[in-house]
């Protein structure tokens, strides 16, 4: 099943969120601690976006590969990595079928920043998770992260995400049963750029119990659901949802 690319245009302004080296220190510390504990040396980021985590993992001294469904995101990732004089092999790939582009296996596969919920059916989700498992070395780790939590779903429907003198990004959230549509409103207000753009991203709402069920169906046996980068256990008060599975 071919999916539309909601990032075909959005990719080129995506990094108005912030530069790709602006990841939080606690996220870096989390991955350093987790990967050191499990002896991770090779990593596939199968939803690499504009390359933020590719840069992070490269700086950590890991052997990194990246892929993404969106050709536009990959184009921006290449530009970003070039700016930092960082070389990472990249390819276009649907993460339901990683084996089609990645013949090698890895110590860790990561699918970060609410990437997996772009898939909307149990069948597609289990197919993707099984494909990720198939790219793992024995004892390898799958790591998933997202900002959708019980807390965020109960939060305000309108959020100002970026508010600069020259640019604003607003999220308008609309829930419909098991799905969450985020209407991304980009407003440029500088002398050089004055347009506005809207991008609609539709996520399947996946929470802790959903992940446990889907991962088990995909063949994972050890499943941890964390609520933050300090390794705390996920609760309905957590502001992040992090999955570590093997």
What's this, in brief?
It is built from six helices and eleven strands.
Description:
This protein has 246 residues and is of the alpha/beta class. Helices cover 25% and strands 30% of the residues. The protein is built from six helices and eleven strands. The strands form two sheets. It has a seven-stranded mixed β-sheet with strand order 3-2-1-4-5-11-10, with helices on both faces. A four-stranded antiparallel β-sheet has the order 6-7-8-9, with no helix packed on it. The longest helix has 13 residues. 33% of the residues are buried.
Brief descriptors of the model:
7-stranded mixed sheet; 246 residues; 6 helices; single chain; alpha/beta; 4-stranded antiparallel sheet
**Strand arrangement, largest sheet?**
3-2-1-4-5-11-10
Q: State the total count of DSSP E strands.
A: 11
The 3D shape can be described as globular
The major pleated sheet works out as: 7 strands, mixed
pLDDT average, as an integer? 96
**Total helical segments:** 6
Written as H for each helix and E for each strand, in order along the chain, the element string is HEHEHEEHEHEEEEHEE
Distance between termini?
A: 27 Å
